[in-house]
Write a structure and sequence with these properties.
The protein has about 160 residues and is mostly beta strands. Helices cover about 5% and strands about 55% of the residues. Strand 8 and strand 9 form a beta hairpin.
Length: about 160
């Protein structure tokens, strides 16, 4: 295949993205499966004014992000070696600016990591089982608690 033989691919990764329009919220579900333990890393770049950082969440003026599982969240901005935490501001080389780079790391053989990104800037908290077979997701946003099932989100219920 285009990504090498199955022996060269130590993990199988599947990402599903849902948009909850009434909550202005993206729900991103990453399922990663392997027969051996690995450190998995999710990276997100946010170009916004930072308000607060917690162990598994980041709050910005116009957006907030939360991660499920027992991983660790770190934030960096404009690192040069290796180059990370920048976005392009134009079409020419050298046209870029530093932005926050959220890095969520988790060690497991297989994992389900749910990321919630609220576009309102209101704090969001997501909790979900790390089992790749589960589909329950629990959200807390704007004083409301929601229990969701991915199977219902896929079918539009």
């Amino acid at each position: 295949g285009p990504y090498g033989s199955s022996e060269e691919r130590p993990a199988k990764w599947k990402r599903t993205v849902y948009f909850l329009r009434d909550k202005s919220l993206f729900l991103i579900v990453d399922r990663i499966e392997s027969g051996a333990e690995h450190e998995y890393c999710l990276l997100w770049h946010l170009d916004d004014e930072r308000v607060a950082i917690g162990p598994a969440s980041a709050i910005y003026k116009n957006a907030s992000a939360s991660f499920s599982g027992d991983g660790n969240l770190s934030v960096s901005r404009g690192v040069m070696n290796p180059v990370a935490g920048y976005i392009a501001t134009g079409k020419e080389q050298g046209m870029y600016k530093a932005v926050d780079r959220l890095e969520y790391r988790m060690t497991a053989s297989s994992a389900r990591i749910v990321t919630a990104i609220a576009l309102s800037g209101k704090p969001v908290r997501v909790s979900a089982s790390s089992s790749v077979r589960d589909d329950d997701v629990h959200l807390e946003i704007d004083g409301c608690s929601l229990s969701l099932h991915e199977s219902n989100l896929r079918s539009g219920k």
